[in-house]
Amino acid sequence: MKMVLLILLFSISxxxxxxxxxxxxxxxxxVMGLFGGLAFFLYGMEKMSDGMKKAAGDRMKNILAALTxxxxxxLGLGAFVTMVIQSSSATTVMLVSxxxxxxxxxxxSLAVIMGANIGTTITAQLIAFKLTDYAxxxxxxxxxxxxxxxxxxxxxLGQALLGFGILFFGMxxxxxxxxxxxxxxxxxxxxxxxxxxxxxxxxxxxxxALIQSSSAxxxxxxxxxxxxxxTLDAGIPLIFGANVGTCxxxxxxSIGTIHGAKRVAIAHVMFNLGGAFxxxxxxxxxxxxxxxISPVAPGIGAEKLALETPRQIANAxxxxxxSVGLIFLPFTVILANxxxxxxxxxxxxxxxxxxxxxxxxxxLDHPAIAIELAKTxxxxxxxxxxxxxxxxxxxxxxxxxxxxxxxxxxxxLEGIDMRESKxxxxxxxVSKYLFDISRQELxxxxxxxxxxxxxxxxxxxxxxxxxxxxxxxxxxxxxxxxEPFSSQGEQELLDYHLRVMKQVSRLRSAFSKxxxxxxxxxxxxxxxxxxxxxxYRQRHLKRVQSEKAExxxxxxxxxxxxxxxxxxxxxxxxxAKNIQDQSDIEKSEEDLK
Length: 593
Fold this sequence. Notes:
The chain is mainly alpha-helical and 593 residues long. The chain has 26 helices and no strands. The protein has 2 domains: 2-9 and 27-342, no CATH class; 361-592, Phosphate transport system protein phou homolog 2, domain 2 (Methane Monooxygenase Hydroxylase, Chain G, domain 1).
């Protein structure tokens, strides 16, 4: 904001030097009114956006996450979501987070970005309706709803209405402060100079990038038009520039994210730049079309301009964004391929240093998204545990020469050590992230989900500890043995190991997509495998009692391995119970609604 102030002051400094032309202008009050109004506008927009997002709750997340590959559906949903939260930047930042959380691919996000630009035109249309006269009424009603309602949904809607009123109150302050400029000839000359399309494009992009809100800048443009200070031909390049400048928000949000999320930001830049440079050469033609479809106001000169131009600029904004979206929509696949070439996938390094891939502190203010990011990181933990469990039994196979040739024991133990360090690192970071989420303003369902995830992540770490702590000791014990497992005993271990691995695979599917059928199957198999472990134990003990040499020699090792696999299965069952409990809570809430 300081940079904006300096630039604006620099812009009007030539005008202030000629203050003698119109001695009625109080520049200090004009600047205070302009920036105070802008502050109210930005604060109101943020409050309105937060209120709408809280009122929507997880539904907004589910709407975007459930996107199909159908481009028209993506376009429509992008427009709808942006219309609700009144910010294309917020929608694009959400998309970056969803791609980061692997809830959608970056290719799916392209149509949504185009729709987001269409949705943001609603703000300009509302501003053009001159609702500023009702700003204080909206503030009063919103305040009453927020302070005195006992229902959370009403409070959130009240917060949105309060923000909406503050937004328009800020518009009124800006409009009133600019009234003296109507008769200030140097400023009028400066506005006339903005009819140069490229100059208007650059100024619009610069100011929007600085205040990080295309809606706020569009509001300022319409305020200038309401005072008769801006023509339609000058306003159109400014709104083109606003579309370009808003890309900075998504660009900042993509810093430090995975490649897919970075591609979302690149797509946003390419799409908005392409649209602006496509239409910048046709400003007069677009202006003529807008004048033809827009209502004509009575009067002449500045008075007529003040009545007609705000609605014309809002209509131009809508026509531009809808047209660009429809033009580019058929070419999303080509655009996706171009961006893949700009930012190709890198070969994943078999890493030793543990890192987090998905956690994003900037999304803590949006718990629904932050929870999804934490879930995606926990899904990584399940994948790592699956790899640890996969190799767990290899050192104990009977064909030692073949086993050691394919997968040397030293490499195996090093691999398990490396993966265990990743599990511990992720457990610490995800637990901290979940704790930070729990300190935000959460719904009852979100709070229950966060604490349930904290419990699950502890169980995941315990599975890693079971494998890591005992594997070295058991491998050493196996080396000292002269006898292999009996054929029946080894087959039982292999069978039980395979079943537990299937449990991990089911858990991974249930956790990633919250599939209740998969969760139910994990729980059903958990009980079955506990019984099966007892049966296998009894069979082994019978072989020991019959003094079968291999069974007697490997008795301790066999029992320890079977016990560890059983404990892993029990922890998987506990994680599945937490998922089921959370699903039951969500279902109960839906039934109440």
